[in-house]
Amino acid sequence: MTGAIDPEVERFILDSIDTVPHLEALLLIFQSPAIVWTVAELAARIYVNEKHASGILEDLARRSLIARVEQSPAKYQYIARSDAQTQLLQKVAQSYRTQLVQVTRFIHSNASASVRDFARAFRLKDND
């Protein structure tokens, strides 16, 4: 499948994914639901430092996309919340496999837009 990204996948990315490493972490955990991941293991697999990996994992857990299954040390796992969530993540994984460039560009363009929106919110107005 090439061309446009599935609109449902686009909506999911807009609502739930901040960066490409967020998506890669989610898909790695989703596609291996029997594995309980430590921060260090995930960091090594997605090529980020442990601090960054910890933040990504906490973001995904806060969004109920993965579960924190142990507290100390923190460990994470995919636990399906619903069949609909699992089916959507299968679509996302398929899109990422077959439309890697389009999906990553979409994530990067949205990150840039959100950064611009954030900056705009704090821009001081001239007192002319």
In short:
This protein is mainly α. Helices cover 62% and strands 7% of the residues. The protein has a single domain (7-113), classed as Orthogonal Bundle (Arc Repressor Mutant, subunit A).
The chain-level mean pLDDT equals 89
CATH superfamily, by name, is Winged helix-like DNA-binding domain superfamily/Winged helix DNA-binding domain
Q: What is the CATH-assigned architecture? A: Orthogonal Bundle
Question: Briefly, what CATH class?
Answer: Mainly Alpha
C-alpha Rg (nearest Å): 16 Å
> Strand sequence of the main sheet, in spatial order?
1-3-2
According to CATH, the fold-level topology is Arc Repressor Mutant, subunit A
Strand segment count: 3
Describe, in plain words, how this protein is organized in 3D:
The protein has a single domain, classed as Arc Repressor Mutant, subunit A, CATH 1.10.10. Helices cover 62% and strands 7% of the residues. The chain has six helices and three strands. The protein has a three-stranded antiparallel sheet. A hairpin with a 4-residue loop joins strand 2 and strand 3 (75-77). The radius of gyration is 16 Å and the shape is globular. The model is unreliable at 123-128 (pLDDT under 50).
